[in-house]
Amino acid sequence: FNNIEDPYRLKKRIQGEWTASTAGGCSNNKATYGNNPIYQINIEGNGQAQLLVELRAPKDYNNGFDIICVETNAEKPFNKTTSGSFRPGYSALEISVPCGVYNIIPCTFSAQQLGHFFLDIGSSVQSTKIARLK
Asked: Where is each Peptidase C2 calpain domain found (predicted)?
């Protein structure tokens, strides 16, 4: 047996909240989706990065997140990708992307579901910056 290598050199936990003004729901809710919190990841460098994004929210809510590619030093791997089907309490996505700038939008399936959440981000590139845009 060998040790399992952890590729994530940077790990960050963000505590966020969906409030009456930021609980926009999923992209099916066209009028309110833009109200959701947005976190921007800037992965510095020229190569590829491994990302792990996890969203922990109240189990009463089906949640998920979208990742939007803002810009890269290579060809865009996607314009927008998702964590997949909305799940109660927890959603995760592990993805390999070129270094660049990505927005993460955590959301619940339905609008106006208020509560706290944790957004955990792991990156294989140490020089990764994370900021809340709104």
From this structure: 8-130
Residue 74 corresponds to which tokens in the numbers above? 């290579």
Half-sphere exposure of residue 31, counting CA atoms within 13 Å on the CB side? 3
Write the burial class of residue 49 (CB in 10 Å: 0-12 exposed, 13-18 middle, 19+ buried). buried
Which is nearest to 81 in space by CA: 63, 95, 91, 71? 95
Q: What is the CATH number of domain 10-132?
A: 2.60.120.380
SS3 132: strand
Q: How many CA atoms lie within 13 A of 41 on its CB side?
A: 35
User: Taking the CA of residue 103 as centre, how many other CA atoms within 13 Å lie in the half-sphere pointing to its CB?
Assistant: 14
E strand spans, the chain: 10-18, 39-43, 48-56, 62-72, 80-82, 87-88, 90-98, 100-108, 115-123, 128-132
| Residues 71-114 pLDDT 10s | 998 889 999 999 999 999 999 999 999 999 999 999 999 999 99
Tens digits of residue pLDDT in 3-21: 888 899 999 999 999 999 9
| Domain spans, the chain | 10-132
